[in-house]
Amino acid sequence: MAVGPVVGSVCGKYNGQITSFVVLSCMVAATGGIIFGYDIGISGGVTSMKPFLLKFFPDVYNKRIQDTKISNYCKFDSQLLTTFTSSLYIAGLIATFFASPVTRAFGRKPSILIGGIAFLAGAALGGAAYNIYMLIVGRVLLGVGVGFANQSVPLYLSEMAPSRYRGAFNMVGVGVLSANLLNYGTQKINGGWGWRISLAMAAFPASILTIGALFLPETPNSLIQHNVNPNTAKKMLQKVRGTDDVHAEFDDLVTANEISKTIKHPFKNIMKLKYRPQLVMSILIPFFQQVTGINVISFYAAILFRTIGFGESASLMSAVVTGLVGLATTFTSLLIVDKVGRRTLFAIGGVQMVISQMLIGSIMAAKLGDHGVLSKGYGFLVLVLIGAYVAGFGLSWGPLGWLIPSEIFPLEIRSAGQSITVAVGFLFTFIVAQTFLAMLCRLRSGTFFFFGGWVAMMTVFVYLFLPETKNVPIEKMDRIWKQHWFWKRYVCEEDDLEFTDGTQKP
Length: 506
Description:
Blueprint lengths: L19 H27 L3 H7 L1 H9 L12 H28 L1 H21 L3 H29 L11 H15 L7 H7 L2 H13 L4 H6 L4 H12 L5 H15 L4 H4 L6 H15 L3 H14 L4 H29 L1 H26 L8 H20 L1 H12 L5 H30 L2 H20 L12 H5 L5 H9 L10
Organism: Centaurea solstitialis (yellow star-thistle)
Family: Belongs to the major facilitator superfamily. Sugar transporter (TC 2.A.1.1) family. Belongs to the major facilitator superfamily. Phosphate:H(+) symporter (TC 2.A.1.9) family.
Membrane topology: Multi-pass membrane protein
């Protein structure tokens, strides 16, 4: 039985290349990924800083210093502390459902602009916070910004980039590393106010996104969808692709738009049998991305290193090291994903992550205990294994968890599908962020076995149920499901029940 075949007949490559125009447009839009990654990295770093804890979470600080009987795994267990981290994601979850109709009705560019403005406001409030309420309200505003940006930016990038280079635009790792570097530097500022710089500097990438959005062109797909003069849309496509010969791609865009006009309720339509594979992927891929445990590392890397006995500066530097590893492997993935394929990278990264997590859990179970400290040798080994785990994620679920959902939806359900993807991602990011410190306290080293089990499961899922999307034009993506050993029974069965215009046969 063929499992997830590599598609050859559906590729139908369009003319075009990576132009300076599309690179500049995508780089501006990709700062949406930077602000998301920055926020993931910054929160865990500041919550390990003594001045920040004393000002906003003194109970956590006093428990960690004064209570010698408390387990290593429970020193940071605080619902208020996790609320600070996770409030952004519940706000993003709600915001994405408002972002979807905005993106569909007005285009990708307005959603990007709204996201940038909201993130700017949140960064300003967080940097100026003098009580916990200001801090959390600032996080909520950051969540609104990330909700709009995560809904619109992946669509923008996937529609602007040529099909064979779609995997080459992802900047989340840059944001995580930038946050880790900044945390390490600001922690050393005398006076204990360095955390304000860490939180406020989120305004820098947000400013690039906001100002850049004013000058971003709308995607050819969106121009056609909003009934702009066809010649204008075609000229934009020619400019984006760097060639006048765009007839095949333009015709496919127009055809996809005609189909999308027949869809009045995209969220209802995505429930149809013919869209079952896209719906399943829009739910399971972001869910799996979160239960890899990566945000445990990203949110709480510095806290985790403090747990195993590293000092404050050493913890933050260790977070920088893992951030560098993640960034390097993410860029490697982006360079090779359109050559080796998505499924191959999922398999390599998945195996690497499972082995690393199992070894980390075993070392912590055998050598750390509730009140011990890892020796320097074992501490260094755990750091290396966490780096190996982050490298596996950077090759696979990091960039591909964003890329796959952005490229598999047909135009008529694209905005709705992306909203579901982002909402599921936010929901489980919130759940993981809100429960991890309590989970670490209760499961202890078993936490790593828990996440490792999920990674093993999702690696098998990808092998069985995700067809290869390498080099497949977005507007012809529906064909890969018709050729897949499992999904063809749903897609082809529904097609048999419809006329060519999409109406149901009696």
